[in-house]
Design brief:
Elements lengths: L9 H6 L1 E5 L3 H13 L4 E5 L2 H11 L3 E5 L7 H10 L12 E5 L4 H10 L3 E4 L4 H13 L4 E4 L2 E4 L16
Parallel strand pairs: 1-2, 1-3, 3-4, 4-5
Antiparallel strand pairs: 6-7
Length: 169
């Protein structure tokens, strides 16, 4: 996506392609319903990180929303592999990745940041927090760095669970 959304820009959300990677079918349905209420029409789903990688390559989403804990591949590993993907195949390894997790401790957040997660959203998730995270992810792109063994947002940047008021790590 090249244009930034505004609260009144329904067309932006209509064009947005979102990949939801979540092992809970109920949570996938909830996320899809929240996205549809925002006007998102192109929603793709995968039940785990392996399926998420396949859907990432096939659908070339504008944003990925993933759970952290899944089997056989979790959202952390999937994020790492997305960031390491070759842009020559048409998929965007710089795609914003929002991680949803019930684990909001420092260790989980640091691990997410170090794998290249764009934003960290705590469960239970509210529609407002999801909306704000999507708008921020596409309207305020994060600078990416590339070093041997890592590609993604600066691993030194501060990240905190959105909407909790907790301090960044």
């Amino acid at each position: 996506m090249t244009s930034s959304p505004t609260r009144a820009d329904a067309d932006f959300f209509r064009r947005l392609k979102v990949l939801v990677v979540e092992d809970s079918a109920e949570m996938r349905r909830l996320l899809a319903a929240l996205l549809e209420s925002m006007g998102v029409e192109q929603i793709f789903e995968a039940p785990d990180g392996l399926g998420g990688l396949d859907a990432f390559a096939e659908h070339r989403p504008d944003i990925i929303i993933t759970d952290g804990s899944m089997q056989p591949m979790d959202g952390f590993e999937m994020t790492h592999r997305v960031r390491a993907a070759d842009a020559a195949d048409g998929a965007n390894p710089d795609v914003p990745i929002l991680m949803i997790s019930g684990h909001i401790g420092r260790e989980s957040i640091v691990h997410a940041r170090d794998q290249g997660v764009t934003d960290y959203l705590p469960k239970p998730l509210s529609a407002g927090v999801l909306y704000e995270a999507i708008v921020a992810a596409v309207s305020k792109p994060i600078h990416f760095v590339e070093t041997p063994g890592y590609r993604g947002p600066s691993p030194k940047r501060r990240l905190s669970p959105r909407g909790t008021g907790d301090t960044a790590v």
